[in-house]
Amino acid sequence: MTTKIIHFMVNGMLEQAEFGADCSAADVKDVFRAAAEAGPHHILKMYSMNGSVMNISPRLEANSRDSYYRLEVVASDLKSVGMPNELDTMEHRLNHLESKVMEDVGKTPDVVCELKSQVESFKRKLESVKHLSWMGLFKEDSDHQLSNLSPKPKSSRLSAQEQRQQVRRKFLNMSSLHVTEEVREHLKTPIFDNWQWEEAEMLVLLQVMFIDLDFLMAFHIQLDVLQNFLFEVYRHYNNIPFHNFRHCFCVTQMLYGLIWLTDLRSKISRIDLLIMLTSALCHDLDHPGYNNVYQINAQTDLALRYNDISPLENHHCAVAFGIMSKPECNILKNLSSDQYKHIRGGMIRCILATDMARHNDILNKFRSIQPVFNFTNNEHKEVLMNIMVKVSDISNEARPMAVAEPWLDCLLQEFFNQSDTEKLKGLPVAPFMDRDKVSRPSSQTSFIRFVLLPLFTELTKLFPCLEKHILEPVRRALEYYSDLERASKQEQEGRSTAGGGGEGGIGGAQEEIV
Ligand SMILES: Nc1nc2c(ncn2[C@@H]2O[C@@H]3COP(=O)(O)O[C@H]3[C@H]2O)c(=O)[nH]1
Ligand SMILES: [Zn+2]
């Protein structure tokens, strides 16, 4: 049977489809619709190399990789309110509505005025860089009023794939806009508030990090390849409570901040900075929300594949290099093979080092070299790179309280999901994940005392300037959670005295149960 191959570019990727001689128009459309990750309400358009529109049908002519077609998804009416032409439609409808109501009632109702001002304000945001408050430090109050108009409620009806494509379109639309100096500077600090930013904006900010560290120039990374890579990274994070794309962004942003605060650019090579930043980005790719202990106990595919040795971290790293195996996403494609080998080795080490089962080994190693630390010693440098990524990975408590606290809820939610499943399956349950045993304060006091403070203190010995940026906030968090823990104990004691002995909780543990 004869077949023909159609090469086409969609969402920045060069794809190909093979059609048999007997396929129908609907088959052809379905193939392109799937490739474009488009929903039934989207209109597809195919363009030839010279820009003319082609009919999407079995009669499409076969072509080559060099003469590919361009497939575009066009959002149908009001499916993407963020686009200016749809805003115009909405404004037009509002004006029409206003004139009709004026005829009937004689005055414009408040609700129409309100809607008009929201449309106007949103239009201003899109049209003028100056008004891009979403590229400013903090969102304006008007954003909250805008939530009814923004695409969010609509997007909740979109499939996950459609939502991701919407993020891609927004990211690409925004990426050419100017990100203010104020934001760029703020991005270099641990007080940056990740909760202010939506996914497409975080992608823009990640792009800014690559640009401001001069990676594009130094490693000949084309902007579209970086954008494809960042989007694929985003696409490979799962929608789970903690180990999601926002966590990836936070870890990368903290690492970026540490690079600037410690002036690391003057101490280690740019290629090593690229290794660290890219490792931070990729360090939890495709995390399923269940940790290594679960993977091993439940004998999951990952545990089988990696012989129980850091199954998750091995997987995150393999997914990262899988993404980069596509030329259109390969930010390393213009490097020499020696440079590539160096980066691959460095990333594998950094990502595998995020397995907390190896925490003590890595910290002890760093402790032993810290007094004689030498930036020109490769072994020292590699340990430091692992430490920097690890510090960033567990740095939520180094952030302002209002930023850190919601992360604890996300983490506990993921822990509880896991322990609930473990209980159902009869698998061992770690006490720190058990909703019947853990409390917010006890979880944090132990983690800060036994994990964060020892690690952050050691890094601060090498970079004393970090004391105020990461060590002090963590000490304050320990005080805060210790106070809460004490207060909760006193309250429990008061209750058990008043109640004549209480109801026999868990092993006498007097903790605030989450
Ligand atoms: N209790 C507590 N654990 C944390 C916090 N941040 C990170 N962790 C843990 O540290 C681990 C680092 O590796 P993982 O991402 O596998 O899982 C993370 C959590 O188990 C925190 O703020 N509190
Ligand atoms: Zn992580």
Number of E-type strands: 5
Global outline: globular
Return residue spans where pLDDT drops below 50 for at least 5 consecutive residues.
75-86, 124-155, 500-514
Kindly, what is the distance between the CA atoms of the first and last residues, rounded to a whole number of angstroms? Answer: 64 Å
Catalytic activity: 3',5'-cyclic GMP + H2O = GMP + H(+)
Binding site for Zn(2+) 2: 284
EC number: 3.1.4.-
Binding site for AMP: 243-247, 284, 393, 444
Description of the structure:
The chain is mostly helical. The protein has 21 helices and 5 strands. The protein has helices spanning 25-35, 84-105, 110-127, 142-146, 152-155, 160-175, 181-186, 199-212, 215-218, 223-235, 245-261, 270-282, 292-297, 301-305, 311-324, 337-352, 359-369, 378-393, 401-425, 440-462, 466-498; strands at 3-10, 13-20, 43-47, 53-54, 69-74. It has a 5-stranded mixed beta sheet, with helices on one face. Residues 75-86, 124-155 and 500-514 have low confidence and may be disordered. It binds cyclic guanosine monophosphate and zinc ion. Zinc ion is lined by residues 247, 251, 283-284, 393.
